[in-house]
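Lecture notes, unit on protein representations.

Consider one protein chain, 287 amino acids long.
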Amino acid sequence: MAIALGLLAAILWGVADFLARFSARGLGPWRSSFYGQFPGFVIFSACLLLIPAMRLPALHAPPLYWWLALLAAGGSTLSGFAMVRGLIAGALSLVVPVVASYGAVSTALAVLTGEHLSGPAALGIALTVLGIAITAMRRGPKIADATHGTAGIGWAILAAGGYGTTLWLQGRYVMPHMGPVAPLWIGSLCSLAVTLAITQARRHSLSLPPLKLLPFTWGYGTLTAFAYLSMALGLTTGKVAIVAVLSSLCSTITAVLGFVLLKERLARRQWAGIALILVGVALINLR
């Protein structure tokens, strides 16, 4: 079940990122992000209101886990900000693979805190992480200035570390006590508040998106929400390392969609990365 939910989260995120490309180009990153977060907030709120089994664990959870949920929400929001700063400052071909390594961070923390991995599963995770990094790399312009060439890497490392740590924190401590939905609701509310504060401080427009862009904006927001739900349900199985790595396949899914639908070319190294991922997933599935 953990493998299926992790892969489902990756597929949903991959399609969502594909749609987000069109939304961000039309609205800009902050306006697109703000309106794209509303579907998730509505979905998570509806789950808590309409499904007692989703809200009761959170209502009975000790205050410590609410504080940990807030800490994870803040960390995830700051990681998103760091990723945006990295993409603005550095080359896509350098920043994206580094951010995509967040699954390796979660895996390392999960193993250090007692999660057991079989030999084939550990090897599969290693090959999958390597494949994700290779597939996420894109050919960029040659950069003569070595200092400029590494611009944004610090932000990318911060984003990967933050995403990986918060995912581990939620899967290892928060969701087993609060259930899968309440931490997502807290994270969505926190992200909306921070995005609103940033856009107001920078005087960015938050006017409603035009009708032609709403399917892309709300489409990627809805798919992202269900991706988070899939990942959260996967984390409740206790297989944090496996779910974290498989969910980070989203960058590969987006690359494949670009190849199929937009006729974007994939470099040989990206095909090699996809092959490594397939071998890695097969090894993870071995019992």
